[in-house]
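Thread title: Can someone regenerate the structure for this chain?

I was given the following input by a collaborator and told the matching structure tokens would be attached. They weren't. Posting the sequence so someone can regenerate them.
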Amino acid sequence: MMASSFLQIRLFVEGFYDKKFVERILAPRLSERYADVQIHEYARVADETLRNHFKSLTRMPDTCFFILADYDMGPCLSAKRQALQHRFEPLLQPEQILIVRQEIESWYLAGVPAENHFKVEIPNNVETVSEEKFRDLFATWCKRYRTNYAILRDEILEIYDWDLALQRSPSLLYCAKRLGLV
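Best answer:
Regenerated them for you:
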């Protein structure tokens, strides 16, 4: 499935911060290629409801859909992809499953410029950054400015460097390629 041959695209993301990232970073770029872009959270939706939604989308010839999932600490990317595919068989194909390494926080971190007002040194490998590691990296800044991690994420999205993020995160680059963004 080549995403760019469709008029509409639907992205299913795990949770709130995944959706926020996709809305602010991916959706504007997708809007240049698709007449309609929709993002849906799926973590708290029953599998049967998702199956029905996927089934209706497969009947729409001008619409493609993808599911975006955190890798977390699975055995390997293939196993994570297979688990999701089996969960929604036969409606979801492996090429429709996009995996974030390790969690969405790593994609947030990937776009933070080296010189940043957070005074945070970005690790060489952002793909190993979990939510806990992300919080640890920014804990001093959040305490100093008496802010929370939700506001921090918004500030990161304000200064996000897309090109830098694609260089730092192979999983984001793969996702961007699958979605026809690069």
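Residues 16-31 form the longest helix (16 residues).
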